[in-house]
Design brief:
The protein has three helices and four strands; from the N terminus they run E-H-E-E-H-H-E. The N and C termini lie close together (7 Å). It has a single domain, classed as Alpha-Beta Plaits (2-Layer Sandwich). A four-stranded antiparallel beta sheet has the order 2-3-1-4. Helix 1 packs antiparallel against helix 3. It is of the alpha+beta class. The protein is 38% helix and 31% strand. It is globular. Pfam families: DUF1330. This is DUF1330 domain-containing protein.
């Protein structure tokens, strides 16, 4: 499955505000061709800094994933996450 993966590691600090983010982010990601592969599921931290919430989403391309992030629908969702979570987010291109 070529494309790109959106990988997020999150510590939620304000559940109510972050809930609003999640409510809006899902449709924004889907509209950009993305689909969740893992979202808040069980995990085992083997190295590095642990975050209690981890998300993996697939997009058809690296460009589509970045465009989703920068797009108005996702930015509107992201406004609710700012100050409501500590996050790391990266996009990794899949191997063909």
């Amino acid at each position: 499955m070529p494309g790109a993966y959106w990988i997020a590691h999150v510590t939620v600090t304000d559940a109510e505000a972050y809930g609003k983010y999640a409510e809006l982010a899902g449709p924004a990601i889907a509209a950009a061709g993305g689909k969740f592969l893992a979202r808040g599921a069980r995990f085992v931290q083997l190295e590095g800094r642990e975050r209690p919430r981890n998300v993996l989403a697939w997009f058809p391309s690296l460009e589509a994933a970045v465009a989703c992030y920068n797009g108005p629908a996702y930015q509107a969702a992201l406004a609710h996450a700012k100050g409501a979570a500590e996050r790391e987010l990266l996009v990794v291109e899949a191997m063909e």
